[in-house]
Design goal:
With about 220 residues, the protein is an all-alpha fold. It has a single domain, classed as Hypothetical protein af1432 (Orthogonal Bundle), CATH 1.10.3210.50. Helix content is about 60%, strand content about 0%. It is built from 10 helices and no strands. Helix 3 crosses helix 6 and helix 4 packs antiparallel against helix 5. The longest helix has 25 residues. The N and C termini lie far apart (about 50 Å). The mean pLDDT is about 90. This is HD domain-containing protein.
Length: about 220
């Protein structure tokens, strides 16, 4: 099994599979997560092959774009990796990374853990923070036809997984319902450090946003 060739084949596979994907979940998102994962993995004791495959395949079929079906991504990844003659235990590990990487409202117990998942999850969460995180958030809100902001619609910080997936709240609410929670849920030291700067940038963005809207900067506590 030539691991470098398998990773190269995976890059080509993902690029082709996501060539028409929504802008926040396209190949460029995957590439950023892959690079973030490499940076974080350098300070962790992990299997770099599993980290690479997990990062590259983590959004191969995001359930948000498949009627909430969370089985499609792991199934596509398994079929591809099987064709690449990857070992069964490695395939299962990557499947579990894809299955458990998502935020899902933040209130669901994570039943699978591994150092490799910790790295890929942190890398993915970093791409939901900072300037890119803001851009992705408004891109997805526009894609779903959501209002930018409604001062009368308060964030729901205690949603179940089902409520989180079904939410159609204004885009600004997403900062409170997910993005501002991520900094304290990072798994690795490097992830935590990188998240701090991006978190602070988002706080400053919302302060300016509320100022331009004509509201107190601390409209909601964050």
């Amino acid at each position: 099994m030539n691991k470098d060739q398998i990773i190269a084949n995976t890059v080509d596979f993902v690029k082709e599979k996501l060539k028409n994907a929504e802008g926040g979940h396209d190949w460029f998102h995957i590439e950023r997560v892959f690079k973030n994962a490499e940076i974080i993995a350098a300070s962790e004791e992990v299997d770099g092959f599993i980290v690479a495959l997990g990062a590259l395949l983590h959004d191969i079929a995001d359930s948000k774009f498949h009627n909430g079906d969370e089985t499609i991504g792991p199934r596509i990844a398994r079929q591809f990796l099987h064709e690449q003659q990857v070992r069964e235990d490695d395939i299962l590990h990557v499947e579990n990374i894809i299955k458990w990487i998502s935020f899902k409202g933040g209130n669901e117990a994570q039943e699978f853990r591994s150092p490799e998942l910790d790295v890929v999850q942190d890398a993915d969460r970093l791409d939901a923070l900072g300037a890119i995180g803001i851009a992705r958030t408004f891109n997805y809100g526009g894609h779903k036809g959501r209002p930018i902001f409604d001062p009368d619609v308060k964030p729901n910080l205690h949603m179940s997984k089902e409520e989180y997936k079904a939410s159609s709240a204004p885009t600004i609410n997403h900062f409170y319902e997910k993005l501002f929670l991520l900094k304290d849920r990072m798994n690795t030291k490097t992830g935590k450090k990188l998240a701090e700067e991006r978190h602070d940038f988002m706080v400053g963005f919302l302060e300016q946003f509320y100022k331009e809207w004509g509201l107190p900067s601390q409209k909601w506590h964050f």
